[in-house]
Here is the input.
Amino acid sequence: MSPRFAHITGWGMAVPDKVLTNDDLVKMVDTNDDWIISRTGVRERRIAGSDQSTASLASDAAMRALEVANVHPGDLDMIILSTSTPEYIFPATACLVQDQIGAGKAGAFDLLAACTGFLYALNLGSQAIKSNGAENILIIGSETLSRVVNWKDRNTCILFGDGAGAFVLQASDEPGGILSAVLRSDGSGGDLLSVPGGGSRHPASMQTLYDGLHYIQMNGRGVFRFATRVMAEATQQTVESAQLTMDDIQLLIPHQANQRIIEAAARRLDYPMEQVMVNVDRYGNTSTASIPIATVEALEQGRLKPGDNTVMVAFGSGLTWGAVLVQWSGPIPFQRKVSPRKVRWFARTRSLLARLRRRIEGLLWGSE
Ligand code: ACO
Here is the structure.
């Protein structure tokens, strides 16, 4: 059997309209614009409205990615959604997205590896395609971190923002696509960055609320030291495992956590900052959504073209870290244009009818 390759053929992003600037934050906590810019590079971030959530942002990004790839939601085999801010503990947010976009034949599940999650999902999807387990896979990173940020904690509230990004992965006999990946973890550092409340260790209670355990807790300096080390290491490892060198890489797309962490990684790699994608200034840290959002903007700016090699590299809570090397391809040429947006409308109706059917069945069985 000839080898199969997993190509990124569609991409999309969705961010809320509401912008929260550093000056807005000055009215909420004891901070200032200069401090935030010099220590983090962040100037503003997006905040989800009350009608938005991790699933709604994910569905919007997914529809855009499907349109670029020209893939009908009904042709998706799998949806992998990476998030640290799911709609619920269960059901999986991926299942809500499956219903919202009308992906009737797709299995769907969530994956939690914090800011590295999108790369874990990308590699998992790529392996499923390469082993003939799937043809079309939707990979989503989506976060509403504003819902777990303590807006009175100046150590964390300046860093994070909301948003979503999505890729469509498709099988092809053409060489290229996902070439190599390095994924790592070290649970001994789990306490450096966590949301400890609401799970089975500290179930939600008046006490967990009082203690603020439902908010992000972070040891900023500890995370910073870890991040600057692993970003360069993982990039080098994934480049070597594809038998390439940094000279073969046209663009580095790092997790957008902090401008200083990104610059430190580029220095360690002796790699020019002009070839590093940075948009942390406008979105802050959107965790697992940051790499697909940065990729979409790199494409819009013409910084990534078919045939280019790019390394996506991330670190996050867990601790987790990793890198994926991609030879960029773009959409597979198609003859007939599909319209995923029309499907979304039908999906809504179908979902309502399915709920109604279940209600009627419940009434009938209940009366037996
Ligand atoms: N405004 C003004 N002053 C502040 C602020 C603020 N928002 N926050 C802290 N300070 C003060 C501190 O109190 C401290 O004052 P002191 O010297 O009088 O004690 C001083 O500034 C320095 O504080 P540090 O914590 O040492 O500042 P640092 O340079 O380390 O920057 C930061 C802090 C930005 C959090 C940095 O450590 C960092 O980016 N760490 C990585 C965090 C990260 O990336 N987290 C996300 C990981 S990805 C994921 O899984 C979601």
In short: Residues 31, 35, 39-40, 114-115, 154-155, 158, 193, 218, 220-221, 223-224, 227, 257-258, 285, 287, 316-317 surround acetyl coenzyme *A (CB under 6 Å). The domain at 5-327 is CATH 3.40.47.10 (Peroxisomal Thiolase; Chain A, domain 1).
